[in-house]
Amino acid sequence: MKSARDRRIKRKAKRAEKRARRQAIAKGVFIENRIAVNTSLLAPTNSYGRPDFVYRGFYVDLPFTCKDCGKKEVWTSRQQKWWYEVAKGDMFTVAARCRPCRRKENQRKTESRRVHLEGLERKRAS
């Protein structure tokens, strides 16, 4: 026999799945593109809450707008699974930039680091 806690967790997950399905239908996101969450592979967090995908038990495709170029993109469930379970990304982060803008931002940061380190070397040499 299951404990009351186990039944409560199962009810919460079922409600979250229904809520996610309703929200996805309202936003025009296809719920068929879902991939199961493996909670044992998620990075540890000190938060008291959990993101929706943990309650749902699966990832769904999420639409977002790139913060640099304004292009509308979709963060796929496969990309989310990689980010949260393989790369151990923070559970409360979501996609903000499209791939080309991410590459530009990484190049900008790399160049900035290089200039900074060159400045430090010149300062030490003097």
Task: Describe the overall structure.
By secondary structure, the protein is mostly helical. The chain has 2 domains: 4-95, no CATH class; 101-126. It is 52% helix and 10% strand. The protein has 4 helices and 4 strands; from the N terminus they run H-E-H-E-E-E-H-H. The protein has helices spanning 4-27, 52-56, 77-86, 99-125, and strands spanning 35-36, 58-59, 62-65, 72-75. The strands form 2 sheets. A two-stranded antiparallel ribbon has the order 1-2. It has a two-stranded antiparallel sheet with strand order 3-4.
Q: What can be said about this structure in brief?
A:
The protein is mainly α and 126 residues long.
Describe the secondary structure blueprint for this structure.
Elements: H1 4-27, E1 35-36, H2 52-56, E2 58-59, E3 62-65, E4 72-75, H3 77-86, H4 99-125
Antiparallel strand pairs: 1-2, 3-4
Topology order in helix (H) and strand (E) letters:
HEHEEEHH
Q: Which structural category fits the helices and strands?
A: mainly alpha
Strand content: 5-15%
Number of domains: 2
- What's the overall geometry? elongated
Radius of gyration: 20 Å
Provide the low-confidence segments as ranges. Answer: none
Mean pLDDT: 88
